[in-house]
Amino acid sequence: MILPRVGIIADDRLQQHMLQAAMAHFGFEVIVSADPSRMELIRGRGLSLDVWLIDINRDNDDELSDWLDELIHGPIPVLVGFEKAPPRGSTTLPRWQKRLYQKLKEIVPGKPLAGESAASLERLSAPVSAQPSRILLPKIFANLALTGKPADEIWVLGASLGGPGAVKNFLDALPAGLPVAFVYAQHIDCRFEETLSATIGRHSELKLCLFQEGRQLTHGDVLVAPITDEFGFEAEGRLVSTHHDWPGPYGPSIDQVILNVHRYFQARTGIILFSGMGNDGSEALTALPERQLPIWVQTPATCANASMPESALATGLVTFHGTPFQLANQLVNRLKNHWMNTHEPDTCQH
């Protein structure tokens, strides 16, 4: 997959660094990032770019003005002038990122940006000749009648480009009857929200559902996180809308989904990040106060796009990685062992 290729020229080193970080977050490839003093070297390199980001505050520099004029009238789109980036970790940074992302979507048409996965859904909708392999339900859960009861654990499944296929394989491998529910946060165009749920759930024994105010997640639920409206949890773990958009450049924000799920469920939270562009999810991992949470990723070599899992691995907080089937098998074993260690022996079937 060819990523959008970006060149950055900025005379403020901090702004230059923040623009680079934003491009990594969006899943873009930064080909060059430099101060205007290097423009002559850059000029002769014949760079193949999709867009220039230019943020220069110098006045009365005729040579620089000529160079900028040359760029603006050249074949590569140019985005000029930016608001000063807020400090990393500030509450206004996601809004700055979102404004920048929207401008890039307008100026770089036809390129795969981090939230666009319609092609993946089309491939998944094609008929298949064989049913997926499914892990056997451990005997310990066989007679517990968990359906309809509030889930013991809530796992966030985060994905972007290439994610739908990986998440579908993961969910298809899971048997019904496990004491767990999921919140699936997938970057995708809002037009395909319902299609995503129907496609991913075609062969799964779990129950995929869309957001419903006041709903309580029960064992076997897979909530497809809404793309436009942020949500959280209130008393008894019931879903509640915040009535505003997700922070950050695209929705749902995997970082914010992780934080909102953990805010209510605390140690009963698990996280798996699948194939995707950018680094959404990684900032939340480092912000979580709980350091004993299971944080897993799809093995980068098996991803259609490995940026998201690789960014998570770089935090040093990931405790397991595997193929979608291996992740499913690891989860079944973890749930079985956790149940045996936390419930009375007479509730367990041996």
Question: Which percent band covers the strand fraction?
Answer: 15-25%
**Major sheet characteristics:** 7 strands, parallel
Radius of gyration: 22 Å
* Helix content percent band: 25-40%
The rounded distance between the terminal residues' Cα atoms is 48 Å
Order of helices and strands: EHEHEHEHHEHEHEEEEHEHEHEH
Strand order within the widest beta sheet: 7-8-6-5-11-12-13
Main attributes of the structure:
single chain, 350 residues, alpha/beta, seven-stranded parallel β-sheet, four-stranded parallel β-sheet, 13 strands, 33% helix, elongated
Outline the structure in words.
The protein has 350 residues and is α/β, with parallel strands linked by helices. 33% of the residues lie in helices and 19% in strands. It is built from 11 helices and 13 strands. It has helices at residues 13-26, 39-43, 62-72, 93-107, 118-124, 163-173, 193-200, 254-265, 282-287, 307-314, 324-342; strands spanning 5-10, 29-34, 51-55, 78-80, 153-159, 180-186, 207-210, 221-224, 229-234, 238-245, 269-273, 295-298, 320-322. The strands form 3 sheets. Strands 7-8-6-5-11-12-13 form a 7-stranded parallel beta sheet, with helices on both faces. Helix 10 (307-314) links the parallel strand 12 (295-298) and strand 13 (320-322). Helix 6 (163-173) crosses helix 11. The longest helix is centred in the last third of the chain and has 19 residues, at 324-342. It starts with a strand and ends in an 8-residue tail after the last helix.
Question: What are the SSEs and their pairings?
Answer:
Elements: E1 5-10, H1 13-26, E2 29-34, H2 39-43, E3 51-55, H3 62-72, E4 78-80, H4 93-107, H5 118-124, E5 153-159, H6 163-173, E6 180-186, H7 193-200, E7 207-210, E8 221-224, E9 229-234, E10 238-245, H8 254-265, E11 269-273, H9 282-287, E12 295-298, H10 307-314, E13 320-322, H11 324-342
Parallel strand pairs: 1-2, 1-3, 3-4, 5-6, 5-11, 6-8, 7-8, 11-12, 12-13
Antiparallel strand pairs: 9-10
